[in-house]
Amino acid sequence: MAEERRRKMIGLQPEGEIDWSEYKGIMVVVEQRAGQAKPVSWQLLGEAKRLAQKLDAPLMALVMGEGVRDIADEAIGYGADIVYLSDAPELRDYRTRPYSRVCLKVIRTYKPEIVLMGATYTGRDLAGAIATHLPTGLTADSTQLDVDDERLLLASRPAFSEKMLATILCKQFKPQMATVRAGVFQALPFDSARAGEVVEVSEDMREGDIVTKVLEFIQDTNRVNLEDAQVIVAGGRGVGGPDGFKLLEELARTLGGTVAASRAATDLGWMDHAYQVGQTGTTVRPKLYFAIGISGAVQHVVGMQNSDYIIAVNKDANAPIFQIANYGIVGDLFEVVPLLTRAFQERLTPVVTR
Amino acid sequence: MRQGVPAVVNYFDMHGVEEALRIKDKYGARVTVLTMGPPSADKALKQCISMGADEGVLVSDRAFAGADTLATSYVLATAIYKAADTWGPVDIIFAGKQTSDGDTGQVGPGIACRIDYEQLTYVQKVEDLNPETGELTVHRHLEDGVERVKTKTPVLITVVTELNVPRRASLPGMLRAARYTPIVWTTNDFEDLDRSKIGLHGSPTIVSKTWVPEPKHVETEMLSGSAQEMSSAVIDRLFASELKQSLNWA
Questions:
Q1: Cys staple from A41: which of A25, A30, B25, B231, with CB 3.0 to 4.6 Å?
Q2: Are strands A164-170 and B205-211 parallel, antiparallel or unpaired?
Q3: Helices vs strands, H then E, count in chain A
Q4: A6, pLDDT greater than 60
Q5: Is the pLDDT of residue A7 over 60?
Q6: Global pTM value
Q7: Nearest Cα residue in chain A from B105
Q8: Inter-chain contact B249–A348, Cβ cutoff 8 Å?
Q9: Distance CA A189, CA A166 (A)
């Protein structure tokens, strides 16, 4: 029994010194559903390009799925030098085992020094399995990436109740792995003329050997989608309760945007967690962000500071949110928000005169 | 389902405990709650006992401190093997999605990988479970919808809070919990444990520095005047910016 147990413990670190010098380049694992790549994949390629140039190393992408050849070409347009493409019916839907198998084969064959994935549900599922199998270190939910002179990946993520950032290294093993929040980085402009190489990778798999089956996917069209919102009207503790959020909703509706909330407001149950912006919620990058009754704790700020324009409304003139806002209004939000709504309505609604 | 021993990892995750207890109520199963943490975590284990769990095990040792995902999943996988030796095969493991800031939702997949179980993450509903064949169908909560997935035990399931509403303790449960002392396993209880692979020492990731991020430097314009004046002034400035074009403000 003891022998069998030992055999079954997967992912034990190898002993002694290992020569990792063959490991070179950065690999981004591209996520897709039904032949559509997730935007976070291109955002990652954008940031990874910068790191790859610093390391003077190739930027690789791994595309897995069925009928996803187009995505491989797209990855080149977004900055990849080499795309490893595994196109097979067994990879139609994401499942941990077949995806891990391909991913592990590609990593072990082509030896990237850094592997990045989106910190999405699928990315976390896969990254946790891969990092254990290899085994190597994994930094989850990173919001900043860099590399140093020793080619170490500096992956930073909020820590200690999200008041601080921590930079995490993996010196011992390769590849160095990190999952990265969607919406944090920007994709490069798509360049259809970019040249790159697509390398097909096949793995011998039989559907009959795969235990887990995806029966169906039910798309939820009502699902809050903060990541793609162009205008966000977010409220915090100062909003005072669910009724206050109705004022915010009106402003959001006027602007064709969506409401959102700080952690304080979702913890108090005023808004569903799905609306939360911040490190434990969603990272957003809208063109226009209203922070209303939000003090501006680090955990919130890291989730929205890349918005193009930030308007803060707060009673407290010393609230830290004003430090990152383009325009600040010190005042009573119950007075200011309806005024903003009305003024936008007047300017945006075409006046029909007969 | 052989003997049926759902184990539950990650303390404070009462949704996983609740789902395991529902399986116990319906089909009969032994529910073992397993957590790695400081001695104070025994309170949470006693709470699980009061809800109806059969055993509560605290995996606790100073040597485990400072563990990252890889080292944590190693210790918990070892503990699950020991639980199987002690109480019988473990068919289903429920793990919390995320417990605290430090946990990253990666421990569940790490454990599943280590002991070679099927892995289903972000489960919001157990639709069907066949205790004879071990087949089960669950709903996974994803960003853009819900995925129905079928698999077979042994399986590790990480749960989201939508899964269920945890029950309150029953009176007999509370009485049992009051008398119950959680089992404690330390490094000495795991004969095969490789001590070089646990705790801070066995963790490949290290924190190189922590800092309070500088706020992004922005030229903030604080508006003045009445609420009416400030609101109009902001809107004038926004309409004068490139937003007018990029947001199609005619």
A1: A30
A2: antiparallel
A3: 10, 18
A4: no
A5: no
A6: 0.84
A7: A124
A8: yes
A9: 30
Torsion angle of the four alpha carbons A57, A156, A43, A58, in this order, in degrees rounded to the nearest 10: 10
**Beta-carbon separation of A320 and B215 below 8 A:** yes
Cβ A326–B113 below 8 Å, yes or no?
no
Mean pLDDT of all residues in A53-81 = 98
Bridge partners (DSSP) of residue A153 are A147
> Of A290, A275, A25, which is closest to residue A174 (Cα–Cα)?
A25
CA dihedral A297, A299, A301, A307 (to 10 degrees): -150
**Mean pLDDT taken over chain A:** 92
Whether B226 has a pLDDT exceeding 90, the answer reads yes
CB A63 within 8 A of CB A24: no
C-beta separation of A187 from A39 below 8 A: yes
Residues within 8 A of B (CB atoms), A 229-288 only: 230-231, 255-256, 287-288
Residue of A nearest to B72 (CA): A132
- The residue assigned the tokens 């063959």 is A22
Residues 54-113 of A with CB under 8 A from B: 93, 96-97, 100
Contacts A258 to B, Cβ<8 Å: none
Residue A94 neighbours by CB under 8 Å, 6+ apart = A31, A33, A122, A125, A126, A214
3-class DSSP assignment, residue A233: strand
* CA torsion through residues B99, B105, B111, B112, sign: positive
Look at residue A248 and tell me whether its pLDDT is greater than 70. yes
What confidence score (pLDDT) does residue B12 get?
52
| pLDDT score, position A229 | 86
Q: Output the six-digit token pair for A86.
A: 């595994």
pLDDT tens by residue, A168-193: 999 999 999 999 988 888 899 999 99
CA angle B9, B11, B17 (to 5 degrees): 65
Torsion of CA A255, A261, A266, A270, to 10 degrees: -40
Report d(CA A133, CA A115) in Å as an integer.
14
What length does chain A have? 354
As a dihedral over the C-alpha atoms of residue B185, residue B187, residue B193, residue B197, rounded to 10 degrees, the angle is: 120
Burial (CB < 10 A; 0-12, 13-18, 19+), residue A205, is: middle
Q: What's the average model confidence in pLDDT over A66-82?
A: 98
Can you tell me the ipTM of this complex? 0.87
Q: Per-residue pLDDT tens for B61-101? A: 999 998 998 999 999 999 999 999 999 999 999 987 554 44
Residue type, A75: A
| A331·B227 Cβ contact <8 A | yes
Instruction: Please check the confidence at residue A2 and state whether its pLDDT lies above 50.
Output: no
A10/B114 CB distance under 8 A: yes
